[in-house]
Amino acid sequence: LFFQILGAVILGFGIWILADKTSFIAVLQMSSPSLKTGAYILIGVGSLTMLMGFLGCLGAVNEIRCLLGLYFACLMVILITQVAAGLVIYFQKESLKEELSNIVGSLIENYDPSNDDKRNLQDTWDYVQRQIACCGWTGAKDWENNEILINKSMTEYPCSCSNSSKDLEVDSGFCNLDDPVNSTATYADWPVHEQGCMDGVEKWLKDNLGVILGVCTGVAVIELLGMILSISLCKNIHSEDYTKVPKS
Questions:
Q1: Where are the alpha helices (DSSP H) in the chain?
Q2: Which InterPro entries match (predicted)?
Q3: Closest of 183, 162, 160, 40 to residue 107, by C-alpha
Q4: Where are the domains of the chain?
Q5: φ, ψ of residue 246 in degrees (nearest 5)
Q6: How does pLDDT run across 51-109, given as a tens digit for each residue?
Q7: Which of 4, 105, 130, 157 could form a disulfide with 53 if both were Cys (CB 3.0 to 4.6 A apart)?
Q8: Plot region of 152 (φ>0 → left; ψ -120 to 50 → alpha; else → beta)
């Protein structure tokens, strides 16, 4: 039963990644094919886990060795896959960080409020900047690469970065700088948050690292217990009795 619930959670998480449109995950999902592929993998693993939970229950209740053996083998494959994925993420974290920087950098550089084709992606990034109270990926200076702001001599700034109360009602697009010096300005003149979104995301991960590791460890331990119990029960069944299989 637990593995059916676990499978449903994994399946739901994969679907959430594909469906979510209002968080940093959505920015990555729309910009990076690898995250979308990962979401489909999660959906597949969740579905497989639910199926294995059902087969495990069926094998245990009816004492069918082949089902218990299949249950053990699938749990082992899932556990090995999870460990391998964790190791890949750990050892490739710098590459992943660089990829994130490239994705967000390209988004900021080409940000255009009049571009309806990218409206969903841009609105999502505005949402991220408002929620985390950040500006750009490494800082507000990233926005100096935006083509529209360059053409306007930096006398405008992204409204979603603003730390001014007068811009609270404007949650996307660009806002006008009140008193630009000589009709030009720099990011240092903007009333925006100093923190980059990279620092905000890293802070969130650090704050929740204990919970994330705890959940992953708990799932791994329960999977190990399931493997041990299934193989023990399988050994205690001396011969397969297919007459115990429920008839339809």
A1: 2-19, 24-31, 33-62, 65-91, 93-109, 119-132, 147-151, 197-207, 209-236
A2: Tetraspanin/Peripherin, Tetraspanin_animals, Tetraspanin_CS, Tetraspanin_EC2_sf
A3: 160
A4: 63-244
A5: -60, 135
A6: 777 777 777 677 777 777 777 887 788 778 778 877 877 787 777 778 788 888 888 99
A7: 4
A8: alpha
Contact 161, 189 (CB under 8 A): no
Q: In this structure, what token pair is assigned to residue 193?
A: 């948050």
**Tokens coding 20:** 């979510």
Beta-bridged to residue 85, according to DSSP, are: none
Which residue in the block uniquely carries the two structure tokens 């397969």?
Answer: 240
34-55 residue pLDDT tens: 556 666 776 777 777 777 777 7
For 191-213, the pLDDT digits (tens) are 899 889 888 878 877 777 777 77
Q: Strand, coil or helix: what is 195?
A: coil
Query: What tokens does 172 get?
Result: 């996307």
Question: Collapsing DSSP states into helix, strand and coil, what is residue 175?
Answer: strand
Phi, psi (rounded to 5 degrees) for 247 = -90, 140
Element (H, E) at 91: helix 65-91
